[in-house]
Amino acid sequence: MKHHDVLIVGAGPAGMMAALSARKVSGNASIALVEANSSAGKKLRLTGGGRCNITTAVSEKDFLDYIPQNPKFLYKAFHQFNNEATISFFEKEGVRFHIEGKKFYPNSERADEIITVFLKMLARERIEIIYDCMATDFEACDKIVLLTTRGKMRCKKLILAAGGASFPRTGSDWRVNRLLSEKGIAVHPPLPSLTQLVVKNARSQWAGISPDEVGLTIFENGKKLKTLRGEMIFTHRGISGPVAMDASAYLSGRPIESIEIALDLIPSVERAALIELIRMKRDKRLTNLLSAHLPKNLLKSLFSDAEDMADGRNLKKAQYEELADRLKAMRITLRSLGTMEEAIVTRGGVSVKEIDPATMALKRMKDLYVAGEMIDVDGLTGGFNLQIAFSTGALAGRSAAMDL
């Protein structure tokens, strides 16, 4: 039976960061990662469309505002290893970054570069990755015994960083979360987050149309829940893009029949100014008048029955308001969120009440720690979820090694 001081289940961003963090404080301790796939960082390779939006430029003070689910739980983890620490960690290994908006990307725009750096560091620190090795159970007595498809392994400390349920083709199958649930740990069921919004009566002719920026307001039972602003794209089934995905993070777990969405397709123009523009330029067709703000094919569809309304005529106030509503308050009724297969991250996981936020240790299981997407914490688009993985992984690794 193999013996390690620290054993980590999952060689994703949280697991690899946990291993390196443990090494930093553990000297010559034996550390190893157990990975079900034949390669490390399989899901990390897909982030940012392969470009790897590794973290955010949002300040430490504002970071938690972008975490819809259990943000306060992350305070100590993020304070101990924040986004500046992440950038410094990789810059010391020669990676250079640039910022787009508030998103950090490696200059190479290749997630493979980040994985390569991780693997080089793990090899340099004599940390083994045991590939094609699936964790199937564990026994926690005086020492922990991890049961795997490649035999039993004993360790003093066990860190679970096996991921969520989204992108199951990368190996995320919720197995370890189910295992913890069977052992009496509170685990919230998996739900899709950061996914597209599926719309009733979606207009397939709009598929592929992408306004530069939209405002999106969520109403629940008629009351305003949240307003977001960002990029969006119409799909055959509804709407996607960053602002729609962020909306899904606030909608996951809520009854979809109570939700209505209002889209502002020209958020840069105030409603009163838009009405005045239409009124003053009523000799022009609407599609020509507004083509500087939106694609003409979208405008033609929106105003196919109203092109002549503002053509040389004086309209009533209600008519101007109705035209403005089509652009500033387009109502959308949802059918559902996208599926778990489409979701970028998982809502749900080990309850934060089960975990010590200062160490990432399970309160009811001695010498066991949890990190990354296994925890019921998730963020918006823009590098927040990778940063959660790095922060919780770093804290779990450090805590486990310090307590050897």
Please describe what this structure looks like:
There is one protein chain. The two termini are 20 Å apart. A hairpin with a 2-residue loop joins strand 4 and strand 5 (103-106). Strands 1, 2, 6, 7, 8, 9 and 19 form a seven-stranded mixed sheet that branches. A seven-stranded antiparallel sheet has the order 13-12-16-17-11-15-14. Strands 3-5-4 form a three-stranded antiparallel sheet. The model has no long low-confidence stretch (mean pLDDT 93). Helix 1 packs parallel to helix 5 (111-124) and helix 1 packs parallel to helix 12 (384-402). The protein has helices spanning 13-26, 60-63, 75-80, 83-91, 111-124, 175-182, 242-251, 271-280, 286-289, 296-302, 317-328, 384-402, and strands at residues 2-9, 31-34, 55-56, 97-100, 103-106, 128-130, 135-140, 144-148, 151-160, 187-193, 197-199, 214-220, 223-230, 233-234, 238-240, 259-264, 330-337, 345-350, 368-370. It contains twelve helices and 19 strands. The protein is α+β, with helices and mostly antiparallel strands and 404 residues long.
**Strand segment count:** 19
User: What Rg is obtained from the alpha carbons, in whole angstroms?
Assistant: 24 Å
Question: Considering DSSP H and I runs of 4 or more, what fraction of the residues is helical?
Answer: 25-40%
Termini separation comes to 20 Å
> What general form does the structure show?
elongated
What composes the largest sheet? 7 strands, mixed
- The pLDDT mean sits at 93
Low-confidence stretches: none
Q: How big a fraction of the residues is strand?
A: 15-25%
> Please, how many helices?
12
Alpha-beta classification: alpha+beta
